[in-house]
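Example record used in the benchmark description.
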Amino acid sequence: MARLSGKTAVVTGGASGFGAGIVRKFVAEGARVMIADINADGAAAIAQELGALAHQVDLSKRASVEAMAAAALKACGTRDILVNNAGVSHLPAPLDEISEDDFDRVVAVNIKSVYLTSRAFVPHMKRNKKGAILNVASTAAVSPRPRLSWYNASKGWLVTATKSMAVELAPLGVRVNAINPVAGETPLLKTFMGEDTPEIRAKFLATIPLGRFSTPEDMGNAACFLCSDEASMITGVALEVDGGRVI
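Model output (structure tokens):
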């Protein structure tokens, strides 16, 4: 039997990068998946390919998130799994030179969205006395890199939020975990590195003991385990999926 057979899942930011890897793995393992993304065309394309659902959402807006949650319930009948994958960064720069607009965008997508999805999804999970929430954080939460200070801070917040959510929701049957990827072949890679050149890639890869970037497949595999019944005794962890980067 597929590991997520009979379960429904909403994956934010599921139209590309790590989110798309999670969507593909979840569908392969039997889940009914909604791809929730601001990129409507990208979400629709993957949804059509995989037989999933697509919903355009602005995760920084309460009304948009509530409409997405309602659409997921109407289409699937229940909401078993929520993956808070959507995230953005600012370009590398001294912390005192990051614009207020860039700071606000990081907070809105990386922090406020998790607050809003929690308001929209947690009451349903409480009533059902079951559910799994997975937050996609980053190695930046554990081993911050210079010139990405406010991005680092947002991911550190997400790890703390994960643990706080987990301890509060555990008695109600809801598990909350996180994964900490290292940078991978996603649209955010150039943002993290400032520019994408062979020299900069080589320098970055030298900090990863396994010698490669994270892939969407890596994230899909880790996410599938943590959201499956195989991980029924695991809550409040921030699993490093980073090739040894933060050792």
